Each structure stands twice: as C-alpha cells, then as structure tokens.
Amino acid sequence: MSNAEHNPAISIGIVIFTNITQLDFTGPYEVFAKLPNTKLYLLAETLEPIQSDRGLRFLPDTPFAQSPPVDVLFVPGGPGIDAKLEDRNFLDFLKTQAQTARYVTSVCTGSLLLAAAGLLQGYRATTHWLSLDLLALFGVEVVPQRVVIDRDRITGGGVTSGIDFALVIAAELYGEATAQSIQLGIEYNPQPPFNSGSPQTATDNVIDSVKTASQNRQDRRRQIIQKIVAQQ
Amino acid sequence: MSNAEHNPAISIGIVIFTNITQLDFTGPYEVFAKLPNTKLYLLAETLEPIQSDRGLRFLPDTPFAQSPPVDVLFVPGGPGIDAKLEDRNFLDFLKTQAQTARYVTSVCTGSLLLAAAGLLQGYRATTHWLSLDLLALFGVEVVPQRVVIDRDRITGGGVTSGIDFALVIAAELYGEATAQSIQLGIEYNPQPPFNSGSPQTATDNVIDSVKTASQNRQDRRRQIIQKIVAQQ
C-alpha cells in the first residue's frame, strides 16, 4: 500500500435502506475500509438507524442531502429494494451521483435499483441468481457471472459475491498488490463446506426450497418492475 | 427447512465490542439469521452503539446483564480484543454463558478471548493466521485450519472464514440440506479474483506488507497475553 500517497483521495458512497441484506454491503465495506487514502460514506435518506431484513441495525453517517459527489457509488440489495424501485427521491439521488461518479456499482439486487434509475440500460450487468430475469425486464444485457465489468459499471451477483466484487474494485482503484494484501488480511481463502452456492451446483431439492421460500417476494417484485417498465 | 417445526428453538448469542472487525460477525449473522426457528441476540455490555475498527456502527439489542443463557455462544475478533483480554466483567460473561451453552464458538481473534476466559485449554482451535502463535501461548492446541471442530468448541480462522464456519454450524444444528439452502440463498459460490487469501498462497511481498502493517498491534497483543499467562 506504499502508493497511497501518490493517489488522490477516493470517496466511496454506500447507499443503505430499510430491509437491506446486510452482507451485501458489510462484505464490501470490510474491503473498501482497508483501501489506502479512501473515505467511505454510509449514505441513507436520514441518520435514523437502518434495520436489515434480518434485524441487524446500523447507523448511517451521512444523509443523502449532505453527501458529496462520490467517486464510487455502491448500491447493495435485499428485500428492501422493492419499496425503493418506485421511490423518486431515492432514484434521483442515484441518478445525480451517477453523473459524476467514476464507477457506478452494485451487489445482489442493488442492480435492479440502478436499472430502475435508468443507469444500466445499454450495459452488461448481473444480480442475484433469483432476479436475473427481472433485471432483463429493464432492458439490461444480463450476464450471469459473479462480477461483471462494463466500462464504468461494475455489478456483482448475490450477497457473498460482494467480497469478490470489492476485491475487483480494489484492484481497479489501487492495483493488484493492494487488493491481494487486503485479501490476505481478511484471510479470504474460502472453503465452503458444501458445493451448493449456485443453481449450477446445488441439488434440485435445495434449489426448489430456495425458490419456494422466495416465490411470493419474487412475484410481487416482478409486478412492480412490469408496472415501471410499462410506464417508461 | 421443513423440519423447523420439529426442532426446539435455538438461541445464538453474538458478543460484540468496540473496535470489532465487523465482517467477523456480519458474515455469520447472515447465515444464522436464515436458520429456522432460531433467535439471535446481539450482545454487548450496554445498548450504546458499537463502532467497528473501521468505523461501521451497530446497535446491539441485548445488554450482557439481560442476556438469557444462549445455546450457541459466538465471539468474533478484531483489534478491539486487546482491551477485552484483561476485562474481568467481559471474560466472566463468556465463562458464565459457556457453562450452559451447547456450543462455544469464535471467528478470527475471538478465540483469543475464549482462551483468555479459560475456555479453550485442552481443545483444538484456530484463529486469524497472524495470531496462531499467540493462541498457542494460552496452551491451546492450535490447528491452522479454516474451521476447527473439537467436541462443543467450533472456531474459525480469519475474518471471512466466518461464512464457512457459520455454514458448518448451520449443518450441525439443522442438517446439511438447511445449510445448503442458506448457501444457495446467499449465493456463496466464491470466486476470489486473486489467490492471495492465505500465507500459503500469497506472494512474499504481499505477506510482508500485511505483517509490517500489523506488527505494532501484534507486538502489543503478545505483551498483553504474555502478562496474562504469567499471572495464571
């Protein structure tokens, strides 16, 4: 990280909201926070505590109205996106930031919010495997990879892909040696006890159980997105 | 997860403290929170916000004094452990909980806190690769693996090992099918962009940069632990 002094300071804005999937951003946060000469902003509409979909509560540090233009705009996902897909103020904040950001990025279903703000049309992008078809409804060129880079758009797949995604961004910003040092610092040498992390490798029973548990949410989300797309 | 109704409710107590490494527990949190019929407690000395070593702020939900006996006691790590290694009230809370817990567990340098509380002597256990020799000072049988199970002690290695660790615990508690469904839900199909996540695979330069950056902290920690061990 000896090149820190030679780089300009970089700002990364992490946009959070109620019912976020917390690991979508806490994984990347750990990587980003170890970058040299980088300032993180945990952005939310207000400074009130934000509760994740599973109850973990965070304190944002900067309200949207006081956010500087950030170099990296990062939007995580989670069940809470459904309420934001039609939230004009929220989407306008993303659009405004995207005009000056060096990178516009997302993990998991955060890409659906970027698409709802019109920021992914004409780009290749990805999302959580359960929502790939929903991202396509927006006219985005969907690529079912773990991390997709298309010019200044960088998107990651579901939840834990955020760690891979953040290491890719770390290398983009500060080079591979810095990214590798961070990887070693967080001992990111994954050894999943099962080979069930993708619909390509999980058993049919496991896939069915996840699909069934999420069916109602995915159906509601599809209706919201179809309505948004019809109005465009 | 169809067997939820047939299992008794399980409680998992996650112990947090100032200057914790947040991903040590937010990774496992995401897994634990998806377990059927399971209640999580985010335990801290008080209900004041807890700030991580890199500035992320969390709201605990239960102070130590109001914690029920939990089935799974889970202690994450981070730079903040140094202040807790000699904190009698903190260590007493761990000891008391361990008397009735079904599993006593840690990720990263959380195992040093368990050892300081006398809860790992006579067990095989692991920790962050930078602190393996410090765990051995406590007389623990150190095993440099990503997840180590020894009877009712389950310990994980550095930071991101928490996800592997939590999936192992999910399988212990509710069986492999449940753990695999959670793995698929969080799309845990890791694809690190570099092969630098362990001192066995990182380059010498990368290892040196991480060791140099942590040298002062590790030296201080060693002094604290040597003092503790000398007094036992």
Structure description:
The structure is a homodimer of 232-residue chains. By secondary structure, chain A is of the alpha/beta class. Chain A has one domain: Rossmann fold. Chain A is 40% helix and 18% strand. Chain A is built from 8 helices and 11 strands. Chain A has helices at 22-32, 81-84, 88-100, 110-116, 132-137, 161-174, 176-185, 204-231, and strands at 10-15, 38-44, 50-51, 57-59, 62-63, 72-75, 103-107, 124-125, 141-142, 147-150, 153-156. In chain A, strands 5-2-1-6-7-11-10 form a 7-stranded mixed beta sheet, with helices on both faces. In chain A, strand 8 (124-125), helix 5 (132-137) and strand 9 form a beta-alpha-beta unit. In chain A, helix 1 (22-32) packs parallel to helix 6 and helix 6 packs antiparallel against helix 7. The radius of gyration of chain A is 17 Å and the shape is globular. The N and C termini of chain A lie far apart (46 Å). In chain A, 55% of the residues are buried. The interface between A and B is large, with 67 and 67 residues.
Defining traits:
homodimer, 232 residues, alpha/beta, Rossmann fold, seven-stranded mixed sheet, two-stranded antiparallel ribbon, disordered N terminus
Write the layout of secondary structure elements.
2 copies of one chain form a homodimer.
Chain A: E1 10-15, H1 22-32, E2 38-44, E3 50-51, E4 57-59, E5 62-63, E6 72-75, H2 81-84, H3 88-100, E7 103-107, H4 110-116, E8 124-125, H5 132-137, E9 141-142, E10 147-150, E11 153-156, H6 161-174, H7 176-185, H8 204-231
Protein name (chains A, B): DJ-1/PfpI family protein
InterPro entries (chains A, B): Class_I_gatase-like, DJ-1/PfpI, INH-QAR
Domain DJ-1/PfpI (chains A, B): 12-171
